Amino acid sequence: MKRNILITGGAGFIGSHVVRLFVEKYPDYNIINLDKLTYAGNLANLKDVEQKPNYTFVKADICDFDAVCEIFDKYDIDGVIHLAAESHVDRSIKDPFTFARTNVIGTLSLLQAARLKWEAKPERYEGKRFYHISTDEVYGALEFDDTLFTEQTKYDPHSPYSASKASSDHFVRAFHDTYGMPTVVTNCSNNYGPYQFPEKLIPLFINNIRHRRPLPVYGKGENVRDWLYVEDHARAIDVIFHEGKVADTYNIGGFNEWRNIDLIKVIIRTVDRLIGNPEGYSDELITYVTDRAGHDLRYAIDSRKLKNELGWEPSLQFEEGIEKTVRWYLDNQEWMDNITSGEYEKYYEEMYKGR
Ligand code: NAD
Ligand code: TYD
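That is the input. Now the predicted structure with nicotinamide-adenine-dinucleotide docked in place:
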């Protein structure tokens, strides 16, 4: 079946994996990647697909309603997979307005463009889909116990990032309830893998170990995150885009909880082994710094609904995933060096000075 699918944020970390999967798996689909190319967007993430005949890149801002409408018209979009967002909690603490603009207004602009274009067609919403990618962070924080976030957990966001994502999730659901748009929302746990911008824990620490820079551990390093390999997230998105129930919500996670400090030790051991350092060589880089404001204690996702209803499960064990990830960053130092030249040093200075 022919389809024209708009993927937003396709030049970012998760988006680039989703674009690659769809372009390669569905040669009959036209994949239109809309991305503003902020600091986090990088077309080098998509070098291997840029020449494919079913792939088109459009540089645009999702907040630019006229530009979004034009893209819907020009490419006759019938499906949206919306990943474009400001995604880093620490940046949201410094600059919440940018998060409200992109994550809330940008999502609304896409929804409204989709509504106007699809409602103007004789078949209206038939065969259409608006898939919004969200995060487990909208659910707030868990205690150190065995509770998990389910699809019924009440929203309780604490950071400007998670508050903006929660707001965008509400808009998406409102467009289903008010206009009948066939929407679906998923809430995923922390992703890791190739092409992640080195402001997030795992690529930042791999790069810092390589340059023998301090590894800034927030607070006591006791916070817990649930880590999922990014290609497993992309596979889940494929399944849910095609088979997920309209107006439904699915949690996506790896049942893979790690205390930050334990994860950091795994990263250090893996990098040291792969670059030939003696065991324990980089432990001295661990540096405890002032905690993140409003730092959520623990995230953990119950993704049984997705498994039971649509048969999705993570394919990679964490040990294998982290080994693959560290190897990828060490083998792709040019990618990392390009990203960390220019503005990055300034960001790093500002983010970590005085902590
Ligand atoms: P990212 O920061 O790596 O990439 C975001 C992309 O969006 C970039 O390519 C950027 O250029 C683009 N973008 C930003 N503002 C834009 C705008 N105004 N117009 C058009 N494009 C714009 O993010 P990511 O980690 O790949 O996350 C993708 C999505 O998945 C986000 O919606 C995020 O909330 C969600 N998510 C991320 C994680 C995670 O662990 N990274 C987990 C769960 C959900
Ligand atoms: P991060 O990768 O920013 O993802 P999120 O905040 O969305 O979960 O951070 C993962 C965890 O690592 C989080 O508990 C904060 C912590 N962290 C540090 O301890 N030091 C750092 O330099 C960074 C970036 C994160």
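The mean pLDDT is 98.
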